[in-house]
Amino acid sequence: MDEDDYILKLNRIEQNIQELQRKKAQIISKLKILETEKEDLQNNYKLAKIRSSKNEPEWVNKKFDWSDEIFKVLKEKFKFDNFRQKQLAAVNSTLANKDVLLLMPTGGGKSLVYQLTAYISKGLTLVVSPLISLIDDQLRALKEIGIGAASINSNTSKDERKYVHNEMTNPGSEMKLLYVTPEWVAKSKQFMSYLQKCFDKNLLARIVIDEVHCCSTWGHDFRPDYNHLGLFKTMFVGVPIIGLTATATMNILVDIQKMLSLEDAVIITAPFNRPNLYYKVVSKPSEKSECLKLLSKWLSTKYKNKSGIIYTSTIKETEEICTDLRQYGLKVKFYHAQMERADRKTVHDRWMKNHYQVIIATIAFGMGIDKPDVRFVIHYSAPRSMEAFYQESGRAGRDGQSADCVLMFNLTDYIKTAAMSTNKTEERNAKSVLHYCMEQSRCRRALIAEHFEDTWRQTDCSKMCDHCLHRKSVSHYNITESLLDITKIIEVASSKEVKVTLNKLINAWFQSGNKEIRPPNLKLPKCPKQVGEHIIGYLISKEYFVIEKGYTLYTTLGYIQRGIKIVNKTTEVLMPYKYEINFPVSKTKEADSKIDDDVGDDVIEISDDTQGEPSGKKRKLDIH
């Protein structure tokens, strides 16, 4: 074989290899597509199974061997005459050794489900709870009613740990509940060895995972140590598991089932509606001094001598607002995770006894807060997600009396949150809050129910949100010219390599400040800047614009860029006579005296010549 034959043969082999590699790449690509389709179908099947689940009635209507005992214990030990909605179904399910996922609103009585069943069951109930402060609260409450309980965590002494370990394997122990954090499960091999001994002696009655949504990367409060809890099902075969949460969408539920191997769990969901809570969104002033005036007015008039919580987004903000509000003579105190544990406990206890009217807190002041007479929860900064908003606002009105849930919103806060997002889940969560705040007329409860895929009846609100109370008509206006103007500003900025912040965009559009990114012949809007900002927020919520992250030495900034809906469209395509974006503008039809402090209300007022438009009519918004 001469040299040419070798070269010819090598080339042929090389061509065959390349062809096989091309086919391999095609097969791998098709395989990935099929795997994605398979996963989507499996998730959709699980979602359909959850939605169609009708197994709750059998756990309520049927009489069980333990039925008389649980009602006796409920009355004599817990001092309740009847179970709340869904509690009985959950109690019966777990006593029948079924795995249970219980979704119940904040303050709905999830703890009673496992505490009562632990009390009447032989052996130990292990409770995995995310916060030591929450565990301490539970232990105090159980001690008051005479139920044996203990905890092990990083603060537990060596002697205390030894005592608890011995009790875990003692058939005659009066310790009915043992609380641990997920971190302790993940890191303490000694504890897990004693838990194994407890199981081997048939003394492990059940395992409870509180705030089970923390397992899911879809959720608003994912915690990596919750991943280790998936071992329970394989290590302790036959031991029923209860997962508890107040905030889980259907996708989060599917994720939880997969991670904890709870595909056959009985799923019990209580309605998300808290009828005594009044939901309201107000426009947050851009100046901090104006925000403080608004807060001080509320705390000294409408909420005078009433207990409440103000949530902020940063530790620095909690301390600054606390200092500033004290200048108004208000009894407020800050609370955040960087405080010493003893200091946090002191603040919490003094607030519980009404020495402080208001706690100004980060999300560290969260799970397990159980003060019945909280009359208001104010979000000074937009929460990270609708789940966080629902859970945090749900700390109001646990006594069943009316309470207010107020969200102070401006677009700057949203842009900061979006810029700080580290993954798609956080971005999606922030966008869900933007959608809730930008909505002009729909019932706030309907929006919450929609987010959690809960059933909804129009009568469920009864004027207990700002939109239903101040019944509004909505006119729709074509704001495509506004979109074009904003797009031109961003394009000019891009050509000059200038990043566009909200402030720069507003100034360029309203022709104030630096002219660097202002396009020639740009018309000056006739509407107020507040309306212009609202239009920008609406266009972001509809994905005409997106938030792009930028980094400095000290912080992360959010810049406004063209979104997927317009990035491939030409200016000609977007002309108003060819393309229409309908911007809803609500106008109050009938006021009500229930809320008398509508400073910063979310009603968008348009210039006089737009008033009186019939509801539902579409026209171009007269802002030029």
Describe the protein:
The protein has 624 residues and is an alpha/beta fold. The chain folds into four domains: 1-52; 57-269, Rossmann fold (3-Layer(aba) Sandwich), CATH 3.40.50.300; 277-465, 3-Layer(aba) Sandwich (Rossmann fold); 477-620, Orthogonal Bundle (Arc Repressor Mutant, subunit A). 42% of the residues lie in helices and 15% in strands. It contains 22 helices and 18 strands. The protein has helices at 3-51, 58-61, 67-76, 87-95, 110-120, 132-144, 158-168, 182-187, 189-200, 232-235, 250-260, 288-300, 315-326, 341-352, 386-393, 411-420, 424-438, 444-451, 466-469, 480-495, 502-509, 529-541, and strands spanning 100-103, 124-128, 149-152, 177-180, 204-209, 241-245, 266-269, 277-283, 307-311, 332-335, 358-361, 374-379, 403-409, 472-478, 545-551, 556-562, 582-588, 618-620. The strands form four sheets. The protein has a seven-stranded parallel β-sheet with strand order 3-4-2-5-6-1-7, sandwiched between helices. Strands 8-13-12-9-11-10 form a six-stranded parallel β-sheet, with helices on both faces. Helix 4 runs parallel beside helix 5 (110-120), helix 16 packs antiparallel against helix 17 (424-438) and helix 17 packs across helix 22. The longest helix has 49 residues, at 3-51. The radius of gyration is 29 Å and the shape is globular. The protein starts with a helix and ends with a strand. The model is unreliable at 589-624 (pLDDT under 50).
Give the secondary structure arrangement, pairings included:
Elements: H1 3-51, H2 58-61, H3 67-76, H4 87-95, E1 100-103, H5 110-120, E2 124-128, H6 132-144, E3 149-152, H7 158-168, E4 177-180, H8 182-187, H9 189-200, E5 204-209, H10 232-235, E6 241-245, H11 250-260, E7 266-269, E8 277-283, H12 288-300, E9 307-311, H13 315-326, E10 332-335, H14 341-352, E11 358-361, E12 374-379, H15 386-393, E13 403-409, H16 411-420, H17 424-438, H18 444-451, H19 466-469, E14 472-478, H20 480-495, H21 502-509, H22 529-541, E15 545-551, E16 556-562, E17 582-588, E18 618-620
Helix pairs in contact: 1-11, 4-5, 16-17, 17-22
